[in-house]
Amino acid sequence: MNQDNIIGKNLQNLRKKLGFTQEQVAEYLQINREELSYYETGIRSIPSTLMSPLANLYGVDEYDFYEENLDLAKVNLALAFRAENIKPSDLEQIAKFKKIVRNYISMKSLLENEPASS
User: What's the Cα-to-Cα distance from 83 to each of 16, 24, 53, 70, 80, rounded to whole Å?
Assistant: First the structure.
């Protein structure tokens, strides 16, 4: 499986797991649905400029898209926002919130693993 196929599979699995439609995500990214479909199927390489917004929206790190065996269970479903009529502005707010939470979790983990000072 080539890199575009791996990334595409992960993009599609994450989108579906979080309950977003291709239309919603494409509108959030300001691309058309067909482009997103090409990225998800691995027909086209996804531009690096779209990776960060997608990582924020899906609540993962960008490098997770490259994992051949991405454990989708690690996606925090407590942060999954499901709604029938989500607007692109809603997705922008969701992505910002998830980025804050991911940064908090990373910082907390670093602080917990820091050696105690004497």
Answer: 13, 11, 19, 25, 10
Enter the pTM of the model: 0.70
With beta carbons less than 8 A apart as the criterion, state whether 58 and 75 touch: yes
Q: Give tens-digit pLDDT for 66-117.
A: 988 876 646 555 555 555 567 777 888 888 888 887 788 788 888 888 776 6
Helix ranges (DSSP H) in 2-87: 3-17, 22-29, 33-41, 48-58
Domains along the sequence of the chain with CATH: 3-112 (1.10.260.40)
